[in-house]
Amino acid sequence: MPVPKKRFGQHFLRDESVLARIAQACAGMPGDHTLEIGPGDGALTAHLSRLGGELHVVEIDRDLIAGLRRRFANDRVIVHEADALRFSPCATVAGALRIVGNLPYNISSPLLFHFLGEPCIAGMVFLLQKEVVDRLAASPGGRDYGRLSVMVQARCEVMPLFTVAAAAFSPPPAVESRLVALRPVPTVVPPPAAALFSAIVAQAFSQRRKMLRQSLRGYFGDEDWRTLGIDATRRAETLSVAEFVALAVHAAT
Asked: pTM of the predicted model, to two decimals?
């Protein structure tokens, strides 16, 4: 049994009932093939290998690669030794993909941003820190609502599934985890406004306690706020995804 490495944020999931439920959730997502991020020693991979299509796994820890290739030598499993943050799924796998993984907590948000907008991804199922899932699913006005909420909800339907206790892992993390499914939806952000949308959302939440008049003064003046019909004394955390889209479209014209 491999020794978890702290530098990779490894917490291996050992509860077979949880592993089976994750595979079941993945099977319910659309896609021709499956891509697993961070398979570790293959505990979840064994369940996923029973699904249809190819199973690609991306592992950064070179000490685990040989064991994965030995264990799944006779299955439809393709092992990639790579950093998931630099791995391009659409350039590697032909067809619609469902992505699944027990993501390292220290890079879960960068990984989510990395996969957003990839055209070949039909669905994602991730085990994340519970507070990250709370942020993904948060509504405007709540303390969990922020940049991550807006950016993901603009591109995906967010479906929190079930909580996983720390005891299901080795070693146990200091926090609870939660499984979440993300189903891409047609983008609500027009392509010409996409870069501005990202920039405006990031800027607004970098000063979330300031009024929009102050936090976004580099983008909008008083006349813009009147045209948009948005009260400039509001704060970023009160704006809906649709209102952020309207800001980006206005700034792009």
From this structure: 0.90
* Residue 157 is assigned to a ligand binding site: no
C-beta atoms surrounding 205 within 10 Å? 21
The answer to whether the beta carbons of residues 155 and 187 sit under 8 Å apart is yes
38 annotated among ligand-binding-site residues: yes
Architecture of the 6-184 domain: 3-Layer(aba) Sandwich (3.40)
Thinking of the domain 191-252, which architecture would CATH place it in? Orthogonal Bundle (1.10)
Tell me the C-alpha distance between 139 and 240, whole Å. Answer: 8
| 216 has binding-site annotation | no
Q: Is 126 helix (H, G, I), strand (E, B) or coil?
A: strand
- Beta strands 55-59 and 12-13: pairing type? unpaired
What confidence tens digit (pLDDT) does each residue in 54-93 have?
Answer: 999 999 888 889 999 999 987 789 999 999 999 999 998 8
Quote the CA–CA distance of 16 and 37 in Å, as a whole number.
18
State the helix-helix crossing angle for 108-115 and 130-137, rounded to 10 degrees.
40
Question: Can you name the residues that pair with 157 across neighbouring β-strands?
Answer: 183
State yes or no: 118 annotated in a binding site: no
- In the chain, CATH 1.10.8.100 covers 191-252
Residue 158 has, within 13 A of its CA and on its CB side, a CA count of 20
Is residue 239 part of an annotated ligand binding site? Answer: no
